[in-house]
């Protein structure tokens, strides 16, 4: 009986002589191609099933079978180069099961004809690789009972057969995964709004084809993490004194953007009706255009809605503390309120609206990779989605 007939992979609680650990030098891909360049010759029970090769040369567990992974994350990480110089892309990673054990961080390599079990990644997880000499009765001599995997030498290779979860459990996993991907797609369609609004679409049946499963806020979107970083939120206003549209309009002129829009605009005027929370956007080339635009907007919206604007609220910047605007507001009987200097909390409606619009715009742009000059289109999409 040879010393290399059996290798046992034990958990980190295993006790014993560490000197029994022996290096294993395999070149699985090369040897498999040496056996036969056409691996499909061995049939689905050999390749299409869950036969895995214990490989000390692989840095990560790798498989070409996407269907055996769950909790799958799409992440293109590079390429794997085979002996025949082919480069196979690493498309993402996930988890897989072997009976009751869960194997994490298994890379999905598109087109890889073999399943590779990395001894390096296994040991990095705190496990031990021990080599036993089989006894005359065929036992490996493991007295601790801590062996989690066994691999036997099969020709020049060490192979293991993994068994996936039962079929009914696998169906639930795939359903949950599909729901998560679908939720992510709807999250993008509604301008990366938070999942509370997505769940509202579900509960009120406002979108056809949307899954009934409610999405948890714990499922973070990487683009939202980049686009929505901010300071702590202002305290919410518990009551409003507005009972009709146009009772109170909040407005703010956003400072010039670093990049001009496609229409060569650098400023953005935001107006919010406190009663309905309806929002209007106007883009400007120069700060001096704001006053004429505000006057024209008030005249137009009063005609469209058949109501009188009663109050305006803004900061006390020079773009609003203007004799021309003051004269117009006094003429039509509109009261203009100002927030205190350096106190944006007093105009929290417009401040939160600006935050929401720019968070959604940054998230969409980070996700799609569009140039910065499309910021106006991104903000408009966020506003009117």
UniProtKB/TrEMBL annotation:
GO annotation (BP), single: DNA integration
InterPro entries named among the record's database cross-references: GAG-pre-integrase_dom, Integrase_cat-core, PolX-like_BBD, Retrotran_Ty1/copia-like, RNaseH-like_sf, RNaseH_sf
Domain of life: Eukaryota
Keywords on record: Hydrolase, Protease
Residues in coiled coil: none
Gene3D superfamilies on file: Ribonuclease H-like superfamily/Ribonuclease H (3.30.420.10)
Protein name (database record): Integrase catalytic domain-containing protein
Species name: Centaurea solstitialis
């Amino acid at each position: 009986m040879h010393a290399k007939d059996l290798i046992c992979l034990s958990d980190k609680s295993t006790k014993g002589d560490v000197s029994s650990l022996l290096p294993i030098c395999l070149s699985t891909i090369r040897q498999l191609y040496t056996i036969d360049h056409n691996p499909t010759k061995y049939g689905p029970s050999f390749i299409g099933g869950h036969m895995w090769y214990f490989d000390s040369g692989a840095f990560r567990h790798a498989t070409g079978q996407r269907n055996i992974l769950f909790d799958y994350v799409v992440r293109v990480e590079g390429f794997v180069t085979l002996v025949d110089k082919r480069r196979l892309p690493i498309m993402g990673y996930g988890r897989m099961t072997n009976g009751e054990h869960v194997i994490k961080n298994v890379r999905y390599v598109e087109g890889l004809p073999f399943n590779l079990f990395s001894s390096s990644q296994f040991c990095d997880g705190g496990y031990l690789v021990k080599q036993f000499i089989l006894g005359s009765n065929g036992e490996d001599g493991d007295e601790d009972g801590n062996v989690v995997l066994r691999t036997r030498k099969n020709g020049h290779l060490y192979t293991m057969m993994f068994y996936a979860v039962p079929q009914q459990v696998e169906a639930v996993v795939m359903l949950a995964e599909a729901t998560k991907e679908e939720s992510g797609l709807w999250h993008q369609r509604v301008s990366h709004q938070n999942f509370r609004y997505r769940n509202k679409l579900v509960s009120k049946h406002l979108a056809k084809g949307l899954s009934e499963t409610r999405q948890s806020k714990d499922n973070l979107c990487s683009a939202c993490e980049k686009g929505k970083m901010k300071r702590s939120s202002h305290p919410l206003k518990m009551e409003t004194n507005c009972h009709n549209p146009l009772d109170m309009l909040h407005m703010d002129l956003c400072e010039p953007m670093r990049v001009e829009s496609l229409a060569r605009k650098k400023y953005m005027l935001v107006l919010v009706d406190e009663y309905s929370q309806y929002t209007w956007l106007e883009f400007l080339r120069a700060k001096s255009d704001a006053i004429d635009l505000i006057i024209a907007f008030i005249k137009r919206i009063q005609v469209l809605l058949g109501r009188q604007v009663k109050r305006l609220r803004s900061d006390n910047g020079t773009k609003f503390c203007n004799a021309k605007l003051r004269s117009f507001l006094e003429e039509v009987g509109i009261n203009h309120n100002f927030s205190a200097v350096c106190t944006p909390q007093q105009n929290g409606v417009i401040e939160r609206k600006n935050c929401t619009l720019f968070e959604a715009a940054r998230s969409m742009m980070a996700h799609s990779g569009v140039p910065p000059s499309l910021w106006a289109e991104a903000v408009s999409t966020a506003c009117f989605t």
